[in-house]
Amino acid sequence: MLEVTSGLSLQQTAQLAQLHVTCLPETAIGTLGRRYALRVYEYLIQSPFERIFLEQQDDRLIGAAVTSEDSVGLFSRLRSQTSLTWHLLTGVPSRQRWRAFRTLTESGCPPRIVFDYPELVFLYIGTAYRRRGIARKLLVMSESSLRDSGNRHYFIRTRDHPSNQASRFYASQGFTLDMVRDGIQYWIKSI
Ligand SMILES: CC(C)(COP(=O)(O)OP(=O)(O)OC[C@H]1O[C@@H](n2cnc3c(N)ncnc32)[C@H](O)[C@@H]1OP(=O)(O)O)[C@@H](O)C(=O)NCCC(=O)NCCS
């Protein structure tokens, strides 16, 4: 398990983008596809606000976590620093494009905790490697890094749906469900 501190090879970045799109197809970045996800990770790797944690096995990327100390500004940073507008306009069919746009702009009117606390913005483990404690280990690493930066709480958002396995994971890891708004659950954890 490692924190990305000094860049990744193009091959590793491409693996990260691919795993994100495969594991999180419903998210805005998943909807916009692998090529756009690659642009996002190229940006996140050198961003001062985000940190990336990886789990690898035999040179193969099998899971990742991304924290942000400015998740409310992430959309506008992606708009100015990546080819987001071009991908929204040309990259996907119009129905998916609208869904991706809505997901991205939902952070335009966020509840209070979004301003107060850092966020674990992405967490995903390859399907073949789930239920082996990898996400739990990535959380421990992310939390230790957030704590070292002076944070005492952080939060995550996930879809409010009975089939969402992530809710069961967060409940098992000491998060408290703070609120549900517009189909999104907001979970907070003290660290
Ligand atoms: C949610 C996810 C990150 C969990 O990763 P994981 O590595 O399988 O989780 P862990 O093995 O560390 O699980 C730790 C504990 O969480 C709980 N848990 C994890 N997945 C669960 C599931 N599908 N159902 C019920 N409980 C679950 C269990 O208590 C588990 O402990 P146990 O295996 O000893 O019972 C993974 O399923 C995933 O990537 N899902 C798709 C992407 C996603 O939804 N990401 C979150 C978006 S907000």
Your description of this structure?
The structure is a single chain. By secondary structure, the chain is α+β, with helices and mostly antiparallel strands. The chain has a single domain, classed as Aminopeptidase (3-Layer(aba) Sandwich). 46% of the residues lie in helices and 24% in strands. The protein contains nine helices and seven strands, in the order E-H-H-H-E-E-H-H-H-H-E-H-E-H-E-E. The strands form two sheets. The chain has a four-stranded antiparallel β-sheet, with helices on both faces. Strand 6 and strand 7 form a beta hairpin. Helix 1 packs across helix 3. The longest helix has 15 residues. The two termini are 20 Å apart. The model has no long low-confidence stretch (mean pLDDT 89). The site of coenzyme A has 19 residues, from strand 4, helix 8, strand 5 and helix 9.
SSE layout and pairings?
Elements: E1 2-3, H1 10-23, H2 28-32, H3 34-46, E2 50-57, E3 60-68, H4 74-81, H5 84-91, H6 94-105, H7 112-116, E4 119-125, H8 134-148, E5 153-159, H9 165-172, E6 176-181, E7 184-190
Antiparallel strand pairs: 1-2, 2-3, 3-4, 5-7, 6-7
Coenzyme A (COA) binds near residues 130, 132 and 133.
